[in-house]
Amino acid sequence: MRIRTAAAATVGTLALLTFLAPAAQADTHKGDTVFTSVTFSRTTVDVGVSAAQTLTVTATAKDGSGISNIWGGKLVSPDDHILYPGSASCTRPTSTTMKCTWKYTLEADRTDYADLANSSAGTWHLDAEAAANDHDYYQLVDSKSVKIKRYAKLTVTQAAPEPVAKGGTLTVTGTLTRANWDTNAYAGYGSQHVALQFKKSGSSAYGTVKTVTTDSSGRLKATVTANSAGTWRWKFAGTGTTSGATATGDSVALK
């Protein structure tokens, strides 16, 4: 006898629960039941400290005998938290298929168990099970995933002196911060590699001049030789748990 651990897809209660999960495992299935498609409205969701972000997941399952139900539709985080959909709806496009759509809300400043924690950032997996009328089944465990990342920001780039003599030394500064879901505030992001980029006046493309590492408070500082007028900016590529960020540039003229 198989025990279903997921709530039925028709139950649409948003919850973020801590639980002890078994070790990661592959999808399991029996018979000809399959998920013919699973789509995420966004491949990456960057969550800050206040604004809620939404995500929609749509899954279609098929079996020759017809699908009796699709269970679960929950998202599981790297630290084994579960996010249930805030709403769910299912239809039967054909006699052998069922299509379900789940909608989720992610936010860091809730005052209840649905609050995000820093340890939850990274790759989340969709956990859902399609059950067929002939008792075949297919359970998604870790094959379908989405990135949930902490939102990063770069302050406006500052380059000085302005204007600068041709061939003179220019000092460029900035600060990289990211959302702290545990404190609901932005904090400096240290020990990160950030590209200093330059776009020559009249050009439409930036090129990387050098890469600088942030200090413990997320601060950036670089000195460069000013050979041309143009715009300087900082660009952070992001990490597996944190979004990328691009600063507003600072245009510097030559004198």
Structure summary:
The protein is an all-beta fold and 255 residues long. It is built from no helices and 22 strands. The chain folds into two domains: 16-149, Macroglobulin (MG2) domain (Immunoglobulin-like), CATH 2.60.40; 152-252, Sandwich (Immunoglobulin-like).
Verbal overview:
The protein has 255 residues and is mainly beta. It has two domains: 16-149, Macroglobulin (MG2) domain (Immunoglobulin-like, Sandwich), CATH 2.60.40; 152-252, SOR catalytic domain (Immunoglobulin-like). The protein is built from no helices and 22 strands. The strands form four sheets. Strands 1, 2, 4, 6, 7, 10, 11 and 12 form an eight-stranded mixed β-sheet that branches. It is elongated. It starts with 15 loop residues before the first strand and ends with a strand. Mean pLDDT is 91; it is low at 1-23.
Name the poorly predicted regions: 1-23
Beta-strand proportion: over 45%
Distance between the termini: 81 Å
Q: Which class of secondary structure composition applies to the elements?
A: mainly beta
Question: What is the CATH C level class of the largest domain, in words?
Answer: Mainly Beta
Number of helices: 0
What is the H/E string?
Answer: EEEEEEEEEEEEEEEEEEEEEE
| E-strand count | 22
Q: Architecture of the largest domain in CATH?
A: Sandwich
Shape: elongated
CATH fold title of the largest domain: Immunoglobulin-like
| CATH superfamily membership of the largest domain | Macroglobulin (MG2) domain
